[in-house]
Each structure stands twice: as C-alpha cells, then as structure tokens.
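Teaching assistant's notes for section 4

Start the section by putting this record on the projector. Ask students to predict, before seeing the second block, whether Anti-sigma factor antagonist will look compact or extended. Collect guesses on the board.
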Amino acid sequence: MVSGSHCDIGKRQVGTVTVVAVAGTVDSVTAPQLAAAIADAAAASPHAVVVDLGGVDFLSSAGMGVLMAAHADITPAARFAVVADGPATSRPLRLVGIADVVGLFATLDEALGAVSGGDV
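Reveal the predicted structure now:
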C-alpha cells in the first residue's frame, strides 16, 4: 500500500478563508504533505482554514493526527474546520472523537458558512 500512496493537495482563497483541498490517500507517506500545506495556509493569517477531504478515499491515523495538530496550532488565532462526508473520512473522524473537537461538515458550503458566521 505504501508504494501506491498518492495525494493531491490544492489551496485557494474564498474571501478571508483559505481552503486546502485534498484528494487521494492520506497516510503515513502523504500526511507530511498535508501538514505542510495546512501550515503554509495558516502562515498567511487567514480568518479561517478549511481542509476539504471530499476527494480523499483513505484517511489513516497519521492523517487524523495532522488534523488534530493543525487544529491545536491554528486555533484560537483563526478558525479551523474540516469537510468530510462518507465512510472513508467522516466515519473514522467521528469514531475516534475528532469530530467532537474539530468542526466537521458534510459540504464545503456548510463549512464556509460556519467559519464565516462564527459557528466553529
């Protein structure tokens, strides 16, 4: 599995929110890429950082650790939210309790509305 690990990460601005969009596999091989992309996004001091896992087909504990570390590093200076929907992403995030700590949303529009409106 390790040799087949591939992760595409893009970054864009939506108003004062930086969206980090991720597709592919987030595991121990690719998690450092995600951590670097989130840190880069946060370095610009946006109002919020939203990590969109909509294109992720596998999220390992290493990826979940990156999300928890990012939440700890970014808040309370900025808002932080995660978009995850489906068995590969939202289910494990809920099972291990990360959804109880990090704002978790089914769609990017929901997440953008929450971080802009102060619900995260």
